[in-house]
Amino acid sequence: MKIASLGEDAVVAALTRGLPPGTNVILGVGDDCAVIGGARDRVWHLLKTDCVVEGVHFEKKEEPARIGWKALCRAVSDIAAMGGVPRHALITVAVARDVEMAWLRGLYAGLRKAARRFGVGIVGGETSRSPGPAFISVALTGEVERARCVTRGGGRAGDFLYVTGRLGGSLAGKHLDFTPRLAEARWLTGNFRIRAMMDISDGLAADLPRLARASGCSFGISEEKIPRNRGCSVAQALGDGEDFELLFAVRPDAAARIEAEWRAKFPRLPLTRVGALTRGGVRAEQKPKHCGFDHFA
After folding, report:
1. In this prediction, what percent of the chain has a pLDDT beyond 90?
2. SS (HEC) of 272-284
C-alpha cells in the first residue's frame, strides 16, 4: 500500500501506535507539542520538532535568511499554541557539498534573528551532507504553567471558534515572513480560559477537523466569515496552509469580553469568530471541501 493512498493523518497514526510513552508524559503524540512533567508540577516542559525541506517548504531561489526565520518560527508557533514560551533549540542542517558557505551564513542569520526575537537559545545541533534537497530540522523545548497549558482536546459542544489574523496567500511568500502568535497566545491563556487551541499550519480545512476530533466534537463554520488576506478566495483561505495563526475555542459567555479586550490589546490584528463546535463526531462529508495541505496526498 502506498502512503499516498492513506494521507498524512493515517500514516502518523499507524507509525505511532504502540510507541513506548516513557515516564512523566502528560501528553504525547497527537497535539502541537508533547507535554512532560508531573501531574502537580507548577510548570510543564514542552517538546517540539519541525523541519523545512527544499522543494516542499521553500524554493532554492529564496533568500536563506527568510528560510532560517521560517524554520525556527514554525516550531515557536507550536509552542505558542500550547500556551507556552520557547526555551532552547537544536538545529540540524543537511545540504549538498556544493552549497555556498554564504547560503549557510544567511540561513543562520535568519535563525539568529528569530531566536533573538522570541527568546530562544540555540544550543547545538548537527550538520550533514544531503545527496539532494537541503533539509533544516529544529528541535525546540519550551515551558508552560500547568494552569495555562492548552491542548486541542479541551473543546466542548457549543464553544465558539475564533481565528487570529487573516488566512490564505502563503504561496505568494507569506509563509516565509509570518510572525508566530506567541504574545497573543500568552495573553489569551493569561486572561481567559481557552478550552482548545492549535496553530493553523496545514490550512483551516485540515486543522479545524483535527481540533474538533480531538475534542470529541463536530463543528460548523460560516465560510463567508473566514478572514482572508487581500486578493485571496475562500478556497485559498481554507486550503493554502502555512498561515500560522491561532485557532481556538472558548465558552460562549466569554465571547463579548474576549472580543472587546482583544480589540484594545491588539488593535491591528483581527480576531474573527468563524463558527462553533457542535455535538457528534467529525464526518467525512462534513469537512470543508477545500481539504488543506497533506504531505502524502
Report:
1. 84
2. EEEEEEECCCCCH
Q: Tens digit of pLDDT for each residue in 214-270? A: 999 999 999 999 999 999 999 999 999 999 999 999 999 999 999 999 999 999 999
293 or 279: whose pLDDT is higher? 279
This prediction's pTM? 0.92
- The dihedral sign for the CA sequence 40, 41, 43, 48: negative
Instruction: Determine the Cα–Cα distance for residues 135 and 131; give it in Å rounded to an integer.
Output: 11
Q: Would the CA dihedral through 142, 148, 149, 153 be positive or negative? A: negative
Q: What 3-state DSSP class applies to 174? A: helix
Q: Please provide residue 289's backbone torsions phi and psi, each rounded to the nearest 5 degrees.
A: -65, -20
What is the model's pLDDT at position 283?
64
Q: Write out pLDDT tens, residues 67-89.
A: 999 999 999 999 999 999 999 99
Contact 252, 160 (CB under 8 A): yes
Going along the chain from its start, the domains and CATH numbers come out as 3-148 (3.30.1330.10), 160-286 (3.90.650.10)
The predicted structure's pLDDT at residue 259: 98
Residues 6+ apart with CB under 8 A from 285: none
Residue 235 neighbours by CB under 8 Å, 6+ apart: 290
3-state DSSP assignment of residue 220: strand
With H, G, I as helix, E, B as strand and everything else as coil, classify residue 167: strand
- 296 pLDDT band, cuts 50/70/90, is very low
Residues 6+ apart with CB under 8 A from 42: 145, 146
> Where do the DSSP E strands lie in the chain?
25-27, 34-36, 43-53, 85-95, 121-129, 135-145, 160-164, 196-199, 218-221, 246-250, 271-278
